[in-house]
Write a structure and sequence with these properties.
The protein has 182 residues and is mostly helical. Helices cover 64% and strands 2% of the residues. The protein has 11 helices and 2 strands. It has a two-stranded parallel sheet with strand order 1-2. α6 runs antiparallel to α8.
Length: 182
């Protein structure tokens, strides 16, 4: 998983400055992994969980490419040089917002209508054309201008980690489900 390059392990000062904390990664995983016990037969359960794990890693690599792919090698090595856009994307309120909106859009793209399917979007094999839709959605989400603009009001909300407030502020700035589906 490519995100580990920016994962804050907290051992050294440089590592603590990395934008992706263990808690943020856990928040993403909690949104996309089905954590409830399964009532499937053991051999089926193993297959479904393996598929889910592969899909989640693939998805996290899509996220990585959408956010970090344009960085120069120098920016990747020196965390202090990361653009403000990336710092804003990885604020806890931002992650709460974009995991929620991405899950909704991905469920739409995968035609998951049943509530149980919506809880576990990655437990089935996903066709390449669906992955391409997810990739485009991720690219569109993280290319939105809202991430690059200094905005004290939005930053305050994102630091507060309040999903409803973050959703309201992002919608005011044109970032919502409709924007990502278009």
């Amino acid at each position: 998983m490519k995100l580990t390059e920016f994962l804050s392990k907290g051992k050294t000062k440089g590592e603590r400055k990395r934008p992706v904390s263990i808690n943020l990664l856990k928040q993403i995983l909690d949104s996309f992994l089905y954590t409830k016990p399964s009532n499937l037969a053991l051999e089926t359960k193993k297959d479904v969980r393996e598929i889910e794990a592969e899909n989640v890693v693939f998805f996290l690599n899509i996220i990585y490419n959408s956010i970090f792919a344009d960085l120069t090698p120098k920016e990747k090595k020196k965390v202090d040089l990361l653009p403000d856009r990336i710092i804003r994307i990885w604020k806890s309120g931002s992650v709460k917002f974009w995991t929620n909106i991405l899950k909704n859009v991905i469920n739409y793209q995968l035609s998951n209508i049943d509530e149980e399917d919506k809880e576990k979007p990655f437990q089935k094999k996903i066709e390449e054309n669906r992955w391409n839709q997810i990739r485009k959605t991720s690219d569109r989400l993280f290319a939105h201008s809202v991430w690059g603009k200094a905005d004290p009001t939005l930053d305050k909300v994102l630091n507060a980690n309040d999903l409803k407030a973050a959703k309201r502020e992002f919608e005011k700035r044109g970032l919502d489900t409709d924007y990502l589906i278009k």
